[in-house]
Amino acid sequence: MFHHADDELFVRPAELADLSALLSLEQACFDSDRLSRRSFRHFILDQRSDIQLLVKQRTIAGYFLVLYRRGTSLARLYSLAVLPSERKQGYAQKLLNAAEAVARQRRCVFLRLEVRFDNRAAIQLYRTQGYQDFDVKHDFYEDHSDALCMQKRVYFFDASAARPLVGYIQQSTSFTCGPASLLMAMNYFEPNQHHPYLEELEIWREATTIFMTSGHGGCGPRGLALAAYKRGFAVQVLLNQDGPLFVDSVRTQEKKSILEWVYQVELQKVEQAGISVQIQDFSLTELLRWLNDGYLVLILISTWQFDRSKAPHWVLLCDADDHFVYLNDPDVDTEQGRTAAEYQYIPVSLAVFQKAFSYGKQRLKAAVALKKHN
């Protein structure tokens, strides 16, 4: 919060009593894509949002709305508005600074936003304040115009390792998170050598070793390790339990027998390849040790911490520091209007990651590390 010297200009959190004033301001500022009274009420009460007002001489002259994504350290500037009569006085910049401050208070690393392509004044403001373009959302607004996506890092700390950015690959099916994560890692070490369209399903066919309760099968850690080894990478596997995995996801004895048979075949292949498979309880410490040794790490997580579903899911651990791990998640939730750029280097707090890094009643932990052979 900031205050003017004579206390006539300040920012404060919105209250339910401000609903009518907010609606009037919204109607004065926007011709379409307006927030409703119900939406404003929701955001004022919601713990995963911050809506604050610019007050000038007891009049609401502007506001900003910042939203937070469950389980991550990303903030989204959903809306920022200043009354037309109060513009060109630096108030938008003041609101933007205040929005960045609340995002920092919540330990968000990046503040992201969308802005109309033809809103040159807003784009210039954001760029002047250090925001960078990172994507385009087509047909984003009610009038079908496109949105430019921008972001700024608002929370800084020392990185534990300096490495080039790991490129992003989106999974093309609902069941190929493992192959897509593996392709991101392989293309990091061998840029542009592994084409997703050609290899994603091929790797899935090689590495699928488990049944699911419904839908297509999934890739197990040994299967992914063998696929990476076949393509010339040094691979290691960490598991906190031995035996066939995901047995509790199938109900028939026939499927359980198939899982056991596949497990025995994999054991033989892994042993023949000389791939190290360690069976032990382990934590983030071991994964960070791999990162420091030059590996990238595929990890199996439960998505419960992020979207309240209980699906097993492969993501790629790209980097970490004292506060966050950074994940490339190949599964883009397009139904929620999200884009691939939002799923690259997702900052996840260490506490949330510790909760997400296991799956199912047996608390399965699985990780596959790979790098180029020396």
From TrEMBL:
Pfam families per record: Acetyltransf_1, DUF3335
Keywords, comma-separated and alphabetical: Acyltransferase, Transferase
N-acetyltransferase domain mapped to chain residues: 9-155
Classification via InterPro entries: Acyl_CoA_acyltransferase, DUF3335, GNAT_dom, YpeA/RimI_acetyltransf
UniProt keyword Repressor present: no
UniProt-listed PROSITE patterns: GNAT
Protein name: GNAT family N-acetyltransferase/peptidase C39 family protein
Organism whose genome encodes this protein: Alkalimonas collagenimarina
